[in-house]
Amino acid sequence: MSAWASANGIVLGQRKTAEKSNEITAIPELLELLNVSGCIVTIDAMGCQTKIAQQIRDRKADYLLRVKDNQSHLKEDIAEWFRYGDEQSFANMRMDFHRSTHKTSGRIEVRQCWVVSDPIAFEYIRHYEGWPDLHSIIRVQRERREGNHITRDTAYYISSLTADAATILDATQHHWAIENSFHWVLDVTFAEDDSRIRSGESAENMAVLRAVALNLLKHDSSKSSLRQKRFRAAMDNDFLLHLLTQL
Asked: Which residues contact 88 (CB under 8 A, 6 or more apart)?
């Protein structure tokens, strides 16, 4: 389990997930290690838990949590409210909307975000009072177009943020940066998935060292690729010293 600072592109902390367990137990422990005051904390659907939301608020941060498909009543009620909002064109509701379009390598991705911050909507959601400082329910729709192929998906979120659709859509987009900027890099540049290190605490220790190395390489302002920087650090002691003195 890793904490990723999307604005800086670095890993802030890691926590080992216990065997025969999952991220739910690791998330609170990782949050305890971090100073997240004033930040927006985004977590996958696994972390959509009232206790985790309360911990985030206790640490003076805002939460943006994706709602789980199997979460009792919550997703069903939020989706139903947005269907009602569509039928009424969100008339007389506290709602904000934002749309963004991104074009990359022959692909067009359109994202739309509706944020409802209306007390009446919250009252419609069963057990909503269990979520601390719940200020917004959110629907994000993504459409990807590659030639004639179009895919669409819809996700629902809850948040302590107020109805600012542009900020929330940006936060959901940056949430996935950890996949391309961290996990993918560890696999391709550091060959983490091919590692056979298993015994004792060695796997966890190596994960920490890879994260530290990645942070150092990304902090360097030269325009070489991460793979090239890593090779140069192995061959050039002066460059290696330059990386280490950035700490």
From this structure: none
Distance CA(153)–CA(21), nearest Å, equals: 29
**Distance (Å, rounded) from C-alpha 35 to C-alpha 23?**
19
Q: Which two tokens stand for residue 10?
A: 């670095």
The model's confidence at residue 96, banded by pLDDT at 50, 70 and 90, is very high
Checking if the pLDDT of 142 tops 80, the result is yes
* Mean pLDDT for the chain overall: 85
Residues 6+ apart with CB under 8 A from 81: 116, 121, 124, 125, 137
Give the whole-angstrom CA distance, residue 247 versus residue 234.
18
Q: What would the 3-class secondary structure string for 15-81 be?
A: CCCCCCCCHHHHHHHHHHHCCCCCCEEEECHHHCCHHHHHHHHHCCCEEEEECCCCCCCHHHHHHHH
Q: What is the pTM of this model?
A: 0.76
Closest to 65 in 3D by CA, of 51, 77, 84, 76: 51
